[in-house]
Amino acid sequence: MRHIMVLNSKGGCGKSTIATNLASYYATVGKKVALVDYDPQVSSLEWLERRPEDRAPIIGIEGHKEGLKHLPRNCDIVIEDAPARAHGPELTDLVRHAETLIVPVLPSSIDMLASTRFLKELSEIGKVQRKQVRVAVIANRVREQTLIWDELDGFLDGLQFPYVAALREAQNYIRAYTRGLGIHELPEYLAWPDQAEWEPLIAWLNSKRSQPSK
Question: Which of 37, 151, 165, 174 is the most exposed place for a label (fewest CB within 10 A)?
């Protein structure tokens, strides 16, 4: 059973969007997927409630209430949507439940500063230091050919953690969310640019580089 968590202490960076799209991707390729929402706002579970019955099933779990105690043992992939403002013992406890961490960062000076502090705290957690959990960063809601995008690109490229993907700001994510779908479930003619941007992240997640040391 693989545990992938999307987290950043900064709110509004698109954690739920990344989590729901990861869950839908793995479900569409035939994996048995659970989506665990640790955020009291339950944005991921609200998305799941909109999901059509004829689409690949995903199990929803209220992690903010019950943790993982109702997680089915036969799941292949567990996608975990972490809450904002997690620090200290709460952050350490969240990391304890994951093998792979995805940290989305927005193109803004405020988000980059907040992520610098967050990633420093994350790097000091014992499980991260022992490489028992792997961490990657992604740029999210990017607008190409802007100065702030160039700044974010350089910022992420200089971090100690691998920078594996950049996802543009696009209406397709809103279209997918409101229908309970992921970007990979939209028609290719409509969403192929966004689907292509996910390929480096999926490739990293499916590689040994994203797997913790034994």
Answer: 174
**Amino acid identity of 150?**
D
Question: How many folded domains does the chain comprise?
Answer: 1
Q: What is the pLDDT of residues 57-115, one digit of tens each?
A: 999 998 888 778 888 889 999 999 998 878 888 899 889 889 999 999 999 999 999 99
| CA–CA dist 201, 195 (Å, integer) | 11
Length of the chain counted residue by residue: 214
The domain in which residue 67 lies consists of: 2-204
pLDDT in tens, 177-204: 999 999 999 999 999 999 999 999 999 9
Query: Does a structural domain hold residue 212?
Result: no
Domain CATH for 55: 3.40.50.300
Q: Tell me if 128 sits within 8 A of 88, measured CB to CB.
A: no
Inter-residue contact 178 to 185 (CB < 8 Å): no
Q: Is-contact 153 140, C-beta < 8 A?
A: no
Hey, is 107 helix, strand or coil?
Answer: coil
For tokens 């230091």, what's the residue?
129
**Cα distance between the two ends of the chain:** 15
Question: Who contacts 19 (Cβ-Cβ below 8 Å, separation ≥6)?
Answer: 6, 35, 37, 44, 79, 80, 81
Q: Which amino acid is at 110?
A: I
Shortest CA distance to 149 belongs to which of 161, 160, 141, 158? 141
Chain centre distance of CA 192: 20
Q: Is 111 helix (H, G, I), strand (E, B) or coil?
A: helix
